[in-house]
TrEMBL record:
It holds the Pfam family Mito_carr. GO terms for biological process: transmembrane transport. It is found in: Membrane. Keywords: Membrane, Repeat, Transmembrane, Transmembrane helix, Transport. This is Mitochondrial adenine nucleotide transporter BTL1. Solcar repeats lie at residues 34-117, 145-229, 239-326. PANTHER family: SOLUTE CARRIER FAMILY 25. Its main location: membrane.
Amino acid sequence: MMIPKELEVEKDNAFELRFQVPDLGQVMKDFLRNREVGEFLSGALAGAMTKAVLAPLETIRTRMVVGVGSKNIADSFLQVIEQQGWQGLWAGNTVNMLRIIPTQAIELGTFECVKREMASAQEKWDQAECPKVQIGHFSLNFSLSWLSPVAVAGAAAGVVSTLACHPLEVLKDRLTISPEVYPTISIAVSKIYKAGGLGAFYAGISPTLIGMLPYSTCFYFMYETMKNSYCVAKKKKSLNQAELLLFGAFSGFTASTISFPLEVARKRLMVGTLQGRCPPHMAAALSEIIREEGLMGLYRGWGASCLKVMPSSGITWMFYEAWKDILLLERRHL
């Protein structure tokens, strides 16, 4: 039986369904091409590596600043080991690592971004005519030339990282100061939330910001100023590892010394909250410290703080610059 051509079914027109799987390798390369991503990632890696090495010094520093245990650095080390064993020197280190990775990523990444944007804004304002306000015979010019991009970026880095990561700082201090009350992270989170809700995780945020502003501004300004001045004087494009370590340590020492009384007052407010006798504000905490311990009380634990801050600052800058060179060099070759 013959079938008319118009009734024949074409078998070649088969239905095809295709799925296109994204190239994850290309997606990752595109992601890493972003300069800001490289800087944030460099900060995270530098913070994690530094904190893993210096966790015992952070534990001793916190205990001495808040007045827990011995006032002597060596005796404080021995006291922690006797009471909690060697692992006591890393008390709260898990949450410390969880805290430092996002903190350093946000802080260093924000610093680089704001510094670039401020420098770019200043350049644009210099090229164009600055806004003016005419009041009678007086003319007022609004210019950004008097602002230091590094100082503004340093202040912004400290504020942004503090606002983002303060709850982890609260957790770390509770685990370090009262390990018998807060033995694990989950128990600490539960108890803090039950005691004061979400607001309890931002306890002491105001004095923390007050103390962070001078520290962060001075820290980044000192480092960038010394680095750039040294490179110009020596006609170098970059610093070697030893120079990065030295300049980072000195910038941390200077910033810590200037802002240390505010750090002592902040810790006093935080510990006072735990003990139920918290001063009403930072000025009252400073006054209470001076009344009880004299002016030297404002620098109690300063030696232990420098012992921790100087190597921490130096090592952080050394690791950060190294990782940034690696990641940004890789970015140029992607």
